[in-house]
């Protein structure tokens, strides 16, 4: 998302996304930079494509549904959490799993998950930050 | 022109562990001077110095080392390449000898890490009054925990779990049993930081760091150094018979970085660059994985060891679980892996690791590994990987 689009979004909604690639539409979604030449997808600001070296990208929406292909339950801090890789119809996404107990019994490889968003709170000017995670599809 | 073979004629590693009374240069000096002595060679004969250190990468550790053991004016390459730093320092020495710039090269890897805690992405930015996007993702604050994890135990846990998702057969217990093997092996290695044998129950019931890796399934931060002297074929043949007899041939020396594959910027891909390095190394050496008598591979976490059985082609693709279940990687198995105790018990002083694993193989090929000697070992492979990523593989042979 460009800086202008972003500030436009902030003015109209009073909300900002936690990362550039989270689009706060009515139905929020993740958006990737897709290489126009080879189709490789990236979430960070790019200088060029790491696969084919070309430097033109288009914005593509990522599926809100996915499958957990890997996870770890990180227990080094005060609150354990589930770090996961989700395959969203062919595009890998890194995330924290939400609304699930951080125990090996509650998370499975291959489990179906969907995108969700939540508030991180407001800053001193009343702007609310919105973060994303994935949660079990069944809930 | 003679053969372009490169030989290891001197090798040493310090005891790994806590060295509160020694600084980085003390440790590097000890390993360097003992490696020179092992080669019966003078520092005056050394034409190039490759020095690896990660925690003080900008400090010119190579020159600081020279200030203590000998300033001869030779070129120094201070290198830093994550956990593959030591192997990278050796690559520099090997390349210089191979290029004919000198007949004798020295490589040193050294680190002081005891008590360093968790490594990886941990930085927290000071909180500003308003939400400000930062970095290439425009993140409003640290992504750690908010968008998964970038801390090593969690990343490598996911690498093992990904293998399980792809091929099946993995479990918490399986990963713990890999750790059980390495800790059992360590009891025979007096240079290991930890020589304690753990039962499977003890491993599984220890503190969980990042499921499925408990504390004993993670490599230990510690202090240590390792050093190696490499020479050209011509030089080796001019050395004393006793040195020649103990010389070990570097049949392959390979360094790769991670090529682009789908999803590699989401979860680091430690597989493709290892497989590429292994393929190149086997080709260079003209041997296959079936010829290896022992393997030291980069078990920074128990979950990592499993995937590298496959990446190094010690088993068929997808067969790492069966390979482990067969008992092959135990020291009395068909393909002993990490008889040194591996990083989980030997310890992981990062920049020393990529030379220390080669030192372990050298000791076995020379028949000098003491109680943990793999009898009759003739060919060995040492593998190291630094996340980011860099992979170093060396294949060594006892020829004489």
Question: Characteristics of this structure?
Answer:
heterodimer, A: about 140 residues, mainly beta, 6-stranded mixed sheet, 4-stranded antiparallel sheet, 1 helix, B: about 400 residues, alpha/beta, Peroxisomal Thiolase, Chain A, domain 1, 2 domains, 9-stranded mixed sheet, two-stranded antiparallel sheet, 13 helices, about 15% strand, globular
CATH superfamily of the largest domain in chain B, called what?
Thiolase/Chalcone synthase
Give the strand order of the largest sheet of chain B, numbering strands 1, 2, ... along the chain: 3-2-4-7-1-8-11-10-9
> Based on the structure given, which CATH architecture of the largest domain in chain B is correct?
3-Layer(aba) Sandwich
Helix amount of chain A, in percent? under 10%
Unreliable segments of 5+ consecutive residues of chain A:
none
The counted number of beta strands of chain A is 10
Could you give the distance between the termini of chain A? Answer: 31 Å
Overall geometric form of chain A = globular
Order of helices and strands of chain B: EHEHEHEHHHEEEHHEHEHHHHEE
- Count the domains of chain A: 1
Largest β-sheet summary of chain B: 9 strands, mixed
Rounded to an integer in angstroms, the radius of gyration calculated over CA atoms of chain B is 21 Å
The CATH class of the largest domain in chain B turns out to be: Alpha Beta
The averaged pLDDT of chain A comes out at 93
Task: Specify the structural class of chain B.
Answer: alpha/beta
Spatial order of strands in the largest sheet of chain A: 1-10-9-6-7-8
Number of helices of chain B: 13
Percent strand of chain A equals over 45%
The amount of helix of chain B comes to 25-40%
């Amino acid at each position: 998302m460009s800086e202008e689009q972003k500030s436009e979004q902030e003015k109209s909604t009073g909300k900002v996304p936690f990362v550039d690639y989270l689009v706060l539409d009515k139905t929020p979604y993740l958006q990737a930079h897709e290489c126009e030449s080879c189709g490789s997808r990236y979430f960070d600001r790019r200088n060029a494509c790491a696969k084919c070296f070309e430097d033109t990208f288009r914005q593509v929406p990522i599926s809100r549904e996915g499958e957990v292909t890997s996870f770890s339950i990180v227990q080094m801090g005060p609150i354990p959490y589930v770090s996961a890789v989700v395959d969203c119809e062919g595009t890998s996404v890194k995330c924290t799993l939400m609304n699930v107990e951080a125990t090996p019994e509650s998370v499975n490889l291959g489990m179906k998950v969907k995108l969700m968003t939540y508030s991180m709170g407001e800053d001193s000017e009343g702007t609310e930050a919105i973060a994303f995670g994935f949660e079990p599809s069944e809930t | 022109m003679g053969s372009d073979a490169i030989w290891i004629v001197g090798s040493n590693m310090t005891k790994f562990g806590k060295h509160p009374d020694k600084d980085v240069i003390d440790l590097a000096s000890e390993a360097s001077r003992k490696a020179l002595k092992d080669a019966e060679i003078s520092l005056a004969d050394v034409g190039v110095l490759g020095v690896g250190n990660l925690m003080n990468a900008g400090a010119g550790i190579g020159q600081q080392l020279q200030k203590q053991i000998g300033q001869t004016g030779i070129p120094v390459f201070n290198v830093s390449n994550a956990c593959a730093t030591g192997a990278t320092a050796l690559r520099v020495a090997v390349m210089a000898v191979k290029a004919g710039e000198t007949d004798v090269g020295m490589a040193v890897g050294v680190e002081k890490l005891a008590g360093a805690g968790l490594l990886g992405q941990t930085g927290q930015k000071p909180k500003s009054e308003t939400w400000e996007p930062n970095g290439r993702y425009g993140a409003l604050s640290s992504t750690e925990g908010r968008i998964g994890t970038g801390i090593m135990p969690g990343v490598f846990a996911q690498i093992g779990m990904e293998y399980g998702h792809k091929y099946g057969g993995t479990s918490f217990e399986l990963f713990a049993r890999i750790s059980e093997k390495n800790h059992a092996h360590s009891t025979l290695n007096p240079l290991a930081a930890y020589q304690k044998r753990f039962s499977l129950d003890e491993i599984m019931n220890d503190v969980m760091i990042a499921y499925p890796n408990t504390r004993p399934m993670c490599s230990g931060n510690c202090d240590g150094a390792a050093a190696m002297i490499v020479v050209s074929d011509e030089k080796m043949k001019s050395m004393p018979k006793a040195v020649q007899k103990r010389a070990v041939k570097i049949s392959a020396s390979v360094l790769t970085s991670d090529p682009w594959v789908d999803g590699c910027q989401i979860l680091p891909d430690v597989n493709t660059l290892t497989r590429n390095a292994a393929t190149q190394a086997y080709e260079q050496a003209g041997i296959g994985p079936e010829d290896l008598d022992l393997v030291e591979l980069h078990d920074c976490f128990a979950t990592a060891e499993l995937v590298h059985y496959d990446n190094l082609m010690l088993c068929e693709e997808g067969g790492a679980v069966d390979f482990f279940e067969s008992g092959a990687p135990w020291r009395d198995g068909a393909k002993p892996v990490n008889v040194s105790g591996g990083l989980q018990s030997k310890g992981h002083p990062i920049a020393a690791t990529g030379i220390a694993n080669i030192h372990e193989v050298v000791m076995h090929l020379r028949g000098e590994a003491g109680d943990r000697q793999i009898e009759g070992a003739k060919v060995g492979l040492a593998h190291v990987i630094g996340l980011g990523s860099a992979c170093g593989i060396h294949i060594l042979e006892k020829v004489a």
